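Quick note —
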Amino acid sequence: MRARLAWMTRALFGERPVALLALAWPTALAVVLDMAIRARAIAGFAAQAKAIYASSLLISAAFWAGPASIACWLLLRGTTRARAALGVLLALWVLPFAASAYAGQALYHRVFHSYVGRDTVRLGVALRGTVTDWFDAWGGPWLLGGMVLVGAIITAGVFGAARWLAPRLAGAFPLLPALLFCGAAVCFWTDQVDSRFLQAATPDACFVHGTVHALRTWVEGRGQVRQGMSLRTPAPLPPLSSAGRPGGRPNVLLVLTESVRADAMCSDPPPACRAPFLDGAAADRVPLGKLTSQTPNTFSACMMLWTGLAPDADFRTAHSAPVLWEIARAVGYRTAYVTSQNPDYEDFGTFTRRAGIDVLVTATELGGMGQEQLGAPDERAADEMLKFVRTTDVATPYFGVLHLSNTHAPYRVDPALAPFAPQSTDPLGDVGAFHNHYRNSVALQERTVTEFLRVLRASPAWADTVVVFLSDHGEQFREHGGLYHNHSLFDEELRVPGWLIAGPRALDATQRTAIGTHAGRRTYMQDVHETVVDLFGVEGARATLPFADLVTGRSLLRPRSPGPGPTVLLATATSVWEPDDARFGAAADERALVGAPGSLACFDTQRDPRERSPLAPPACDDLRAAVSPVFVGER
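Predicted structure written out below.
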């Protein structure tokens, strides 16, 4: 019995068990890198998350044990074929993973304040053209060369460790590395690694998980199947009639922009806020309260704005609930959707194909789309919307959505219009200069919107027209460590400009007064939806519409109810967009509960506008109670 146990031990661990620890040195390097990047965040993990992180160390070591032990075996063989196989192993396996899982992860975290995780690689393959553009913006070939250099150094380290270890494994070659590698593969394949949410795993484990998940979706035939926008199956509407103002229903034009944060464009009129272009055509603008998006990504924000649903709406509901165009058309409006957004980006355009739209023009028809995420030039979309307005009979009310795009990263600018300096296109350099580049892009769009409004206000139907302007979400410039959007629920990614202008006959005195009651108070994307429905004259019939119980917004044309405002849900992940680093939360007036699952923090945004000092947990117990059951125990 003792002899058999000794044989099994030798077969499993080899003659020099302690020497096997050399296989784990890439994991030690990953831990050092991780601590350099986010030691404070890891220290703040709850005990369970720390345990999950500890398990990722074993998974990481087991993964690297695979190629390292194969390299040892090939070195022991010593044949020409073995040496050739070793070169292939190092070049096609170790080098790509080493470059991506270390230098690549450090770069990705520097930009997005998050690691490449479960779905990132799959999404990157689907959007490889855009990935190339982003890479060029970050540093191009030099950046790639640096990643390869780091990968080559690590690869050389793996080879050196194998050369040192190989003689010590002569004789009974241990089975343990192979068994551990198989175990790690199972963990990656079955999603037993937290590379989403808290990302309680080392950077190399997060990247490998993303790669394996992409492979799994391809093997299982799900490579093109992903959560997102799809063709809708609209729920039938009941018979509707408009209960608008006595003079008839107003024309309604919704101008939705992209990635513009509240402090980048004036919502208040002068002299409270001065806008160099906008004041010339919209000095009479009325702010829509402290408008706050409930999600920091375009897909989810559009779903909420068009349907009025909250971010927890399931996929089927999101693709069945009536959208604004359908409601407008049901009460006699002529409808249009003109957008400089790219409809092919993650099938974004499929959502509006069955939306009751009479005139549908996207970036594909507008042309001039030089970059996938910038879309077509905004001024082309504005001109196309003006054509729609001019060709609509004055006796027929119209509803149109003008959806702009050029303020999405990498931010379109006009070199002749650069009021903010110094500016830089380098997101890895001075963040102030990069922020100025963004502000110059917003200035260009403000000029475009101003010219559009000047022409619109000169049109015959202006007296009966309402224009509502807002952004889908904001943009972060390292206020909480990251860049761009879709990675947090802090105010820089959620607070957006929102204002309204109207012709003299479009709103009555009661409605104009009501809007003022929301001044300085939090309003939300769902409220804008309901405001537009009210402009159609359908607010009284809201209860008869499909999914009415899930559409909980308030019309801002109605006086604000006394007392506390509503509790609303916040999320980066919805049924139409699911990022790797999902965040969830809720807000009520100036209290916000935001963060990763299992690590929600409560803030008072009035006393602490930068959201730096979390409140004691009881301060947001009611918000926590709203979040937990909806997002599956905070996921």
